[in-house]
Amino acid sequence: MATEQSPTIASVSWGKMKVTGLEPGKDFKLYPGGGRPWDWGETGMRHNPGVRVVDVEELLQKGATTVVLSQGMDLKLQIDPATLNYLEEKGVPVHVAETRKAVEIYNSLAGTTAVGGLFHSTC
């Protein structure tokens, strides 16, 4: 069975992202076959300690074999070291970058890799 392609990000600016096939929004969880708004309240996410294991699990459940994590436009969003350890233990390559750079990395992988990502379009 072929893996579904991850949606591409058409544009990103402060507080707004456009993802192919989805309504525009602020923050997104993207994965092979689709994506959805990223509601931080679902997991109690905060800028610090930042992205936790619970925040990335859905990406893997949806088939992501590579993960891109954005740190916000001003690099304010932290990545919990336990999250990076978790992905490493699972053998999942992870890219961490400022949001615009994270979008570039993600889009470069979306056509050829089962990539998932968490994108924060402010701070």
From TrEMBL:
Assigned protein family: Belongs to the AAMDC family.
Listed name of the protein: Mth938 domain-containing protein
Keyword Metal-binding included in the entry's annotation: no
Extent of the signal sequence: none
Pfam family, one: DUF498
Primary localization class, coarse: cytoplasm
Highest classification ranks of the organism: Eukaryota, Fungi, Dikarya, Ascomycota, Pezizomycotina
The UniProt record lists the keyword Metal-binding: no
Keyword line: Cytoplasm
GO CC annotation, single: cytoplasm
Localisation: Cytoplasm
